[in-house]
Structures are given as structure tokens and as C-alpha cells.
Amino acid sequence: MNGRSVPSRADSTELLDISEAAQFLNVSETSLRRWTNAGVLPCLRIGLRRERRFRRADLLGFMEQSTAPQRPANREEDSMKALAWKDEPVAAVHGNHLCGIYGSDAGRLDLSVPFLLDGLRRKSVCFLVAPRRAQKDILKAMKRRRPSLDSDIKAGRLIVSEHQDSPAAQCRFFETAMSKAEVEGVESFRVVGDMWGLRLKVSAKQMVKLEVGFERRIVPRFPVVALCAYDARKFAGVELLDALKDHDDTFRFPMGKTLA
Amino acid sequence: MDRVGSDRTPNLSEGPVTLTFGSHLCGLYASDLGRITLAVPFLLAGLNEGSVCFLVGPSNTQRQALKYMKKQRPSLQDDIDAGRLILSEYHSGTRGQTKYFRSLLDKKIAGGAQSFRIIGDLWGMRCKASEEDLIEYEADYDQLIARNYPVITICIYDVRKFSGVEVLNTLKGHRDILRYPLEKVLA
Lengths: 260, 187
Hints:
The structure holds two protein chains of two kinds. By secondary structure, chain A is of the alpha/beta class. Helices cover 43% and strands 15% of the residues of chain A.
């Protein structure tokens, strides 16, 4: 789904422990626990400690299920159903200001890539605001699914930048860019912000100012759907709680859309 | 820092939220007062509706919650003595905790109880178990308790103590949270 190579099919009856299975699928052990607990990925439980063991065949089957061709478009009526693999986009309802939280680099891609690709397909002007390394990873994953991405960037359909130095400057950036785009006929916008990029420049309290500023100055004024992505490995629990409090819209969507 | 017992009266109204059996919510709090705003209305509503209620957590959590509850419900000691409000700390093993709940819930149902509310302050378990064990516990609880008994559950997490990744895992383990107004589950 994100361009990962398909592992060898050799010895499909082999049993892998959770660490090996996580490496095999290139996901976290936590995700594996969650999927097995939810019943979407089969596993065996062995020994007194009921440790998980995975058949390679089951892992391959799970991976193939998740990379199956997409259903046809016009899936908005289905977009609220939780899937084992997060390739369904968030429902595009203007005014949504969502909080996504991820715990791995793969998780960041799972949140941001489908969201931005769906925006480009819908002819929205999309913004990716993130530190350089995150930009690179996300763009690489997007290019695998949209080879014309460079022309989107060149044509101004995908705007890539790092965070500005202050919340006020960031809001001004969006206002200027979106106003200009609207004059040119653009009818909708999507924004992905990888919020660690701002946190590197401002305090936790200032972060709240951006979220509030965005909610008050950008969301009511422009037809935008925004996903603020928070890296759980970097933000403290208290900061994540503040982030969630600033994103009430998040809690009307299936969790699989906003946590990875 | 918020002081429990200060003159700031928490909003103890349960509001328009509809809680149904099988609901397994998580609440996040960042202050002692926040913990009270999550726990107290939930338990008082349970007692008012005739449910058997469980408050599971460290002793200071129990103490603070009881102090606030007594202000609203002077007969609280009667509830405790009659077994309508059950207080306990977490068992040292996650399996032991699940077994404890099942055993007590079965006993109460045999004695005529028809509904339950459980609130757990999960730092009490995290002190005794690993991060992975806690995830497993929540999954087991969801399958064995929350979905199998006439119970409404809130698991509350002190975000001052849990890491960002643990908060993320918590949210992932509580899908039900996404159908409720934010202020009901975050404090």
C-alpha cells in the first residue's frame, strides 16, 4: 500500500513470533496485537503465556487483502466504516478540522497519504506542512500511487512547506495562499500538518494558539478539510490531550481514520 | 495545579450523553480535578439508576472520588456497606483482574443485580504491569467483560503519567469514545 515490497512466499506454513511478523509486514507490534484482538488478522496462541504466533500464509493473505484494488469512486456513503487497512479517505466535509495521532513513520504515511491523494483526485488544492524529512517520506509514498505528482507540485495543486515561525505567521500563510487560489477558481482545500514541525519552533502553549487560530480564522472562511497529525513518540501525553481537545471534529469519525 | 476540594465546582451533570450496556469508553485527564469530573458523575448516575458500581484504582483516587461523591450523596456509606459501590485497587496480574470482575459480576447477577458501571483509573494497573500487558488487558476486558455483561465502563488515564504512545494505544483500544462529546471523555 505504501510501496513496501512483497516478502518471499517461501515456507508459508512457518510460524513467526510477533517481532518477526511485525518486521514481515513492516508495522508495529502494537498494530499486530490490535488487529489480532479485533479478529481481522488470524494468529495462534501458544504456551502458558499465550504468546502469539503467525502463519506466514496468513500474513501474506492479510497483506494481499490490504493491497487489493480500490472499489470504484463515490464511496462517501461508505466512508465511515472502519477498515482493517486505512486506505479509505476521510469523508470530505468542508469545515472538518481533525486530529490524527500516529506512533510510527508508517503510521504517518497511513494518515497523510490517502488524505492528500484523495484531495488531489477531488481537485482540491492540498497543503503538506511538515519537517523536511517527513515531507520527503510522504511525497515518496504519494509518487508511487500518483506518478504525476511533480506536475501537481509545479502547477500549485500540492503546496509543500515547512511550518512558519509562529502560529500567527502560519495562519497568514494559509490565508494568503488560499485567498489567491480562490481568486484563481479553486473550490476546496486540504491541509495536512505534521505538527512536530511547529513544536520544534514554539512552545506547547503556542501550539494551542495555532490550532485555535486555524479553527477561528481559516476553517470558517475557506472550504477546507484539515488533518493535524501528531507524532505520539514525540508529544507528551498532556500535549496530546490538549490536541484532542482542540479537535472536536475528530470524534465523529471512525478511529481508524485518525489514529495510526 | 488544580486542587481537589477547591471552590471550583466541577460540572457533575452527565448531560445528554446516552450510555448503553457494552459501552467501553476511555477518559483522559490531566489534573486531579479532571479525574473527579470524569469519575464522580458517572458513578453517581450509576447509583441513582440502581446499578452496582465499581471504582477501581489507587487509594488516593478512591479517597478523592468518595469525598466528592459524599457531598452529593450523603448515604454513600450505606451504598458501600450494602455492596452497591465496590472499591478496590487493581490486582497485580491482568488475568487476575479480569477473573476478579467476572467472579464478582456473576455473583452479583446471581444475587439479582441487573446493571453495572465500572470505572478504572488505569495508572493503578500500569504501576503493576507493563505497557504491553495493559494493552492486552484492555482487549481482554473488552471481549470478556464489556461486551458480555450489562455493564458500562470508563477507563480513565492520567496523561501526566502515560506517554504519548501509551495515550495513542489507549485511544485505539476504545473505539466507543468516538461517538461521544469531547468534554465527556477528556478533562
